[in-house]
């Protein structure tokens, strides 16, 4: 088998080399001069009605091959100058049946007599001339018939409706969705027929495909229904979901390092797993065909594989699982067998070990992951992990730290118990409990964080502190209220004494004069003098206009007033204690 593979590989490499030579020859303009089997073909496209050349036409050449019992037309890519470099068959009969040619142009149609001429007419190489450099050249003509706009649109409508009809297979959907698919095709075919422009036709086609894309195939629905239940348990016993992806498209990515793992379906021991391809391995002088999945057991690479086995082929296989109820889940199973993947796996393990760094109690996950990845390697690959001693040293250090932590936690538990006892000793909280509460708090605060976490009655301590604060606050409030009451009473007494010393209320009278107002009042008790206020509104702002500093002055004349205006006046008496009450406002209209 290996010899046959090497032989096939040689053939492929030789073919690739030949293709490279041909590709290189096509780059240079005259590279085919010394190759008489090559011919450069120019296609001129003409308007059939006028005979004029159509400049924006697109010439096309097809390489005709016979495969699977039918002809296959493979498009040939033109060179930069728009010409086609074609190989001229040596066989005289094949020369006229190797290539076909045609052209397309907007506003024109290519007319062919039968279905077999759909890709154009056959190129005849018998009349090919030579240019000055000895190159074979051939000029061909294609005549296109002008189309009316409606003919062109009808062709586009026909092509678009066919594209819509062929877009999806009805058999891929459930019965209900098949009817929906049928309705969508009909609906948007009608829209295509009703479209009046090329853009409108394209839009209708795009919208139709968009609506069809919203339908979910029967298999995709089934995949979505069960995909999350497919699990994979590795040889270390770790179980994880097998598939990744969404919307009915799922894949599983495994490598030979997962050898010995088991597939399963949650709640369905009767599930059967299958794949389409096998895997070739080489062990010493023998070849073995190993199935990825054993259908009976659902396990991965269960065949006994020696540690020195080298895998020489990589596969990407379509896989499926048939559930106990007969439903099926399909997915792509990707298996990595490349040598560089093995090298990468070793490098990844070395990186995991190197990433452990300084070992602390928080290094457990990193150490366990490095150990798991190391144990998952084939034994032949484990030997290539040259920093394995770092892993074992880290594991030893972690155990030492764990023991030290246990001893520390034991000491912290004793300290925490002593604090719990102090908290218990507080008992019912009164104002006399302050010393006991303070002592318990100091003992707790002196603990390490670890010991504090082990105190079981810390809530009782905070409750006791809260109760003590409430009692102290209540006492302080009571004392403050008593003090405030005494101060208020003293203030009220002082205010009463002050008011008793103030002058009495002035009894004011006002008379109008010529552009003046004459104010008068009786002598007010305890007055040292008087203050006169004026406003233009009864309830407006009164401004001070005169201070009379003698208690004997019982009259005041306000002059230079405006004739016909109304004024309001107030007067109050004052002494060394302060101002007495304001008189009632008096109104006067100036003459």
From TrEMBL:
Keywords: Coiled coil, Signal. Residues 502-591 form the Fibronectin type-III domain. This is Fibronectin type III domain-containing protein. Residues 388-424, 461-499 form a coiled coil. InterPro entries: FN3_dom, FN3_sf, Ig-like_fold. The keyword Coiled coil applies. Residues 1-33 form the signal peptide. Gene3D superfamilies: Immunoglobulins. The keyword Coiled coil applies.
